[in-house]
Design goal:
This protein has helices spanning 47-59, 75-84, 114-128, 147-159, 173-185, 209-216, 247-250, 255-258, 265-269, 272-288, 292-301, 316-323, 333-342, 351-357; strands at 2-4, 7-11, 18-20, 22-25, 64-66, 93-98, 133-138, 163-169, 193-197, 219-223, 309-311. The protein is of the alpha/beta class. The chain has one domain: NADP-dependent oxidoreductase domain (TIM Barrel), CATH 3.20.20. The chain starts with a strand and ends in a 15-residue tail after the last helix. Residues 21-342 form the NADP-dependent oxidoreductase domain.
Length: 372
């Protein structure tokens, strides 16, 4: 671990690549009408405001950007590409993704086939105005393609220098283990990261996916660390969210659209456990002189499987607040325990039993297995 200015730099998985422990996610960059509703949201940023956020991010020491070809149908990548022209490219670790349908009129413009991955990389490189991608991520599993085809394509792209590393996102445990095992036993370049939704309100991946990451040396990149705004403390019990201030508010009257961002106001509005968690976060934040979002992000940063937390900023002020979680303070062991206990965590069989019977007395530091 290295510290420079306002951020900490961690190795990304078992690779030699170092990234700031706060990654700037670019899903909020670019406005696209008539596309997915999330890219029409009032909190989306135009190019000028996106560049302001990017400038402040690197000024604060950040070096890790995450985007995807599907974000505003390429506009996010274009915005970053234009900004990169004014930067020293080799000081930025640039991640993007491929998998989802980019053109509804072309049946081959989606998925993880060799054809589409290579086409996606060439198109992303053009939009990003660079000749290499530091981290290419499969945005989700693809049942239509043998995993061998996908992994051999990623390996070829690493070997020819188009990408430096690859990772996966939004996969389950057996899929991730299959990815690692095939790559390992066929002597292909190995994945280095898993980008997964993870927060105090979304902890399912702790049961299996993160066990694979610890065993196999993959760094976790949590997305939606504030659960679309639910962990910011800006919502009040009994009050509907403002439509202009958050994605939750923007989608509040349309449950169908809300499901596209994976969460709805009705899920938590009448949930006492959620409000209890926020109260405890507020108390801990006050103790440290920090904000509730900083507590949510700090909790993630203190998970040993996490390499960098992906934040999405809609203003310089919000960015500065989120970056304040990076270094200079820590949650105590007792505070981590309080948050763990207040955070909803379902007990599923067989995971609960696996964790219970492999407790601290069955931990062997010389065996690459999960430390409970």
């Amino acid at each position: 671990m290295a510290v420079t200015g306002n951020v900490v730099y961690n190795y990304l998985g078992a690779s030699g690549l170092k990234v700031s422990n706060i990654c700037l996610g670019a899903m909020t960059f670019g406005i696209l009408k008539g596309s997915l509703p999330m890219f029409e949201c009032s909190t989306q940023l135009d190019e000028a405001k996106s560049h302001e956020v990017l400038d402040k991010y690197v000024e604060l020491g950040g070096n890790f950007l995450d985007t995807a070809n599907v974000y505003a149908r390429g506009k996010s990548e274009e915005i970053i590409g234009n900004w990169l022209q004014k930067q020293q490219r080799d000081r930025i670790v640039l991640a993007t993704k491929c998998r989802f349908q980019m053109d509804a009129s072309d049946i081959n413009k989606g998925g993880l086939s060799r054809r589409h991955i290579i086409q996606s990389v060439e198109e992303s490189l053009a939009r990003l105005k660079t000749n290499y991608i530091d981290l290419l991520q499969a945005h989700a599993w693809d049942n239509g393609v043998p995993i061998e085809e996908t992994l051999r394509t990623f390996d070829d792209l690493v070997r020819c220098g188009k990408i430096h590393y690859y990772g996966f996102s939004n996969v389950c445990g057996w899929q991730l283990q299959k990815i690692v095992d095939f790559s390992k036993y066929n002597r292909l370049n190995l994945p280095i990261s898993l980008q997964q939704q993870y927060s105090l309100l979304c902890r399912q991946s702790e049961w299996e996916e993160f066990m694979v990451c610890k065993n196999e040396g993959l760094g976790v990149l949590p997305w939606s660390p504030l659960k679309s705004g639910f962990l910011t403390g800006k919502f009040k019990r009994g009050e509907k969210p403002d439509k202009t201030q958050s994605r939750i508010g923007f989608y509040n009257d349309d449950e169908t659209k809300a499901k596209q961002i994976g969460v709805t106001w009705s899920e938590f509005a009448a949930n006492d456990a959620y409000w209890n968690l926020l109260d405890k976060m507020g108390n801990i934040a006050a103790t440290h002189g920090k904000s509730i979002p900083q507590v949510a992000i700090r909790w993630l940063l203190q998970q040993d499987v996490v390499a960098s937390v992906i934040i999405g900023a809609t203003s310089v002020k919000q960015l500065e607040d989120n970056m304040g979680a990076s270094t200079g303070w820590e949650l105590t062991k007792e505070e981590m325990t309080v948050l763990d206990a207040a955070s909803p965590r379902m007990s599923y069989y067989p995971y609960e039993m696996i964790w219970r019977v492999n407790g601290p007395d069955r931990f062997n530091q010389f065996n690459r297995s999960v430390k409970i």
